[in-house]
Amino acid sequence: MFKIIGGTIAGVILTAALTFFMAGSLMFNEHESPFGVEETAARIQANIQALSDRGWSLSALRDPSKAVAEDGTNVLPVLLVETCSTKYSAPLLKDDETRILSILMPCTIAIYKKDDGKTYIGTMNSGLMGKLFGAKVASIMEEIAKDQAQFIVMDPTKPAPPLIKGGPGGSGSSGGGSTSGC
Question: How far apart are CA 171 and CA 160, in angstroms?
Fold first, then answer.
């Protein structure tokens, strides 16, 4: 009897510890890019625009590393591509129970350089995140996850598109924001 109780307690403790230490790595995905920060951001922007039939549009391009540098600290480059799809945001914004999830809008994709000199793409694990909020949100976030996978496809055979420096109305390049989009 003590072996069963002890084993159960040990299992609960182990599960809690694993959840605590791995939760962060499960909530976000990181992918290495074969290109530099700006070219990666430009390719992601082009991929997003290619999915406009699914409601996706660019909201802004932000450069938090520039704001930090202006404050006197030198950091490696970071760009944030912000995008939203009205196809996915509308059902969430219409419902009182899910409107709080507007905090996740627009979807943000981080492109950054690390000390190893390589460029990385960071995304939220939308599929897993959606499962935390019930069936309705899970089904929407699963579709978003499929689209996000297409955003980060880097085809080296295609020429680099130009970087779109601002969001709607030309804002976003210096850390400012746009009020349009999602």
Answer: 22
Strand partners, 31: 121
pLDDT for 98-153, tens place per residue? 999 999 888 999 999 999 999 999 999 999 989 889 999 999 999 999 999 999 99
Tell me whether residue 15 is exposed, middle or buried, using C-beta atoms within 10 angstroms of its C-beta: 0 to 12, 13 to 18, 19 or more. exposed
- Buried-exposed string 97-131: b where 16+ CB fall within 10 A, e elsewhere: ebeebeebbbbbbbbbbeeeeebbbbbbbbbbbbe
Q: List the one residue out of 109, 80, 104, 107 whose CA is nearest residue 93.
A: 104
Q: How far is CA 128 from the centre of its chain?
A: 13
- pTM: predicted TM-score of the whole model, two decimal places: 0.81
Angle subtended at Cα 178 by Cα 175 and Cα 182, rounded to the nearest 5 degrees? 120
Domains, the chain, in order of start with CATH, read 27-170 (3.30.310.70)
Task: Tally the C-alpha atoms within 13 A of residue 41's C-alpha that lie toward its C-beta.
Answer: 25
